[in-house]
């Protein structure tokens, strides 16, 4: 997980919580708000858990939203390991950093958001297109969504093969 920031046309900040599954390269969520605290991050993760289950490990930087009391308590209560990267070492969370660059270049820099709702709509459309329509060589030519589906189907056959990380 990581954050990406932008602004709406009126100059107000938008904060995007980006959650990417390392195993599937699937951007499982991009939550767009004016502000998101640790409790807000945990609410997003609880919502994702309803459809995806809980991960075993979550990798983040040392931002206060990720290593504050709310997030640490949330992870502890659910048996999830938080892996914080070393300060100043974004390469330790390389895939989400790379994804953030694509999000910035292809979506945020290409659009002037007139409102928070407009930003949410455009960013979600871009996320779905990225996930469902862009094949990746690293995933054997499958899209992240198709690869995730394939992993989920194989987990049904062999439960120990399932990757529970994002």
Description:
With 166 residues, the protein is α+β, with helices and mostly antiparallel strands. The chain is built from 6 helices and 5 strands, in the order βββαβααβααα. The chain has helices spanning 38-52, 64-67, 69-78, 94-108, 116-133, 144-157; strands spanning 2-7, 13-21, 26-33, 57-60, 81-84. It has a 3-stranded antiparallel sheet, with helices on both faces. The protein has a two-stranded parallel ribbon with strand order 4-5.
Summarize the structure.
The protein is of the alpha+beta class and 166 residues long.
Task: Give me some keywords for this one.
6 helices, 166 residues, 46% helix, globular, 5 strands, two-stranded parallel ribbon, alpha+beta
Layout of SSEs?
Layout: E1 2-7, E2 13-21, E3 26-33, H1 38-52, E4 57-60, H2 64-67, H3 69-78, E5 81-84, H4 94-108, H5 116-133, H6 144-157
Helix pairs in contact: 1-3, 4-5
Instruction: Report the radius of gyration as a whole number of Å.
Output: 16 Å
Fraction of helical residues: 40-55%
Q: Roughly what is the average pLDDT, rounded to an integer?
A: 92
Contiguous runs where pLDDT drops below 50 for at least 5 residues: none
Termini, distance in Å? 7 Å
- Strand arrangement, largest sheet? 1-2-3
Q: Structural class, from helix and strand content?
A: alpha+beta
H/E element order: EEEHEHHEHHH
């Amino acid at each position: 997980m990581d954050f990406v920031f932008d602004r709406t046309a009126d100059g107000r900040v938008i904060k995007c919580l980006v959650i990417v599954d390392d195993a599937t390269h699937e951007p499982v969520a991009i939550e767009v708000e004016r502000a998101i605290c640790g409790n807000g991050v945990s609410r997003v993760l609880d919502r994702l858990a309803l459809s995806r289950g809980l991960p075993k490990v979550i990798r983040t930087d040392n931002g206060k939203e990720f290593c504050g009391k709310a997030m640490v308590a949330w992870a502890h209560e659910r048996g999830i390991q938080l892996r914080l990267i070393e300060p100043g070492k974004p390469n330790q969370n390389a895939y989400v950093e790379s994804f953030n660059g694509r999000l910035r270049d292809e979506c945020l820099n290409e659009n002037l958001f007139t409102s928070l709702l407009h930003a949410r709509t455009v960013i979600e459309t871009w996320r779905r297109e990225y996930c469902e329509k862009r094949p990746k060589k690293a995933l054997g030519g499958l899209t992240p969504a198709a690869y995730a589906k394939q992993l989920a189907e194989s987990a049904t056959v062999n439960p120990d093969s399932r990757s529970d990380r994002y």
